[in-house]
Please model this.
Amino acid sequence: MTPTARRTLLWLLVLLGLYVGTWAAFFPASFYESFPGPFSSWIALDGPYNEHLIRDVGTFNLGLAAASAAATRYRDPAPGLVVGLAWIVYSLPHLGYHLRHLDHLGAADVVGQVVSLSSTLVLALPLLLPVRAAAPDRGVEVAR
Model:
């Protein structure tokens, strides 16, 4: 993986973390009632409202987003690898839980939930790969 690809994956994780994190941390009732968006509600179907838990999920996602953003600033791949591992540790059990609790959702919501919850895992897994240097520039030399 190139440094540019690594940074791109990290920035995509930042965006996902900010989306979930900002909504849940600062607007927990709305998150509970309306997540993932205006056409569905996945959280409210899963149990009673718990403001503390929703805000915790939000701040956790904001923390992962901040760590991902910080990792983009380093040429060394180690920070990206650590952040990728953190996203994987978060994403695997989260996805596993939801895969076992899809029976209360319609077909479109099942697909949406599986795809959206898999996205952080799919974006984070390549961060564990070794980073290779970008290809050398093979531009035309200008005569002096």
Summary: The radius of gyration is 19 Å. The helical segments are 3-26, 28-34, 51-71, 78-99, 107-124. DSSP finds five helices and two strands in the chain.
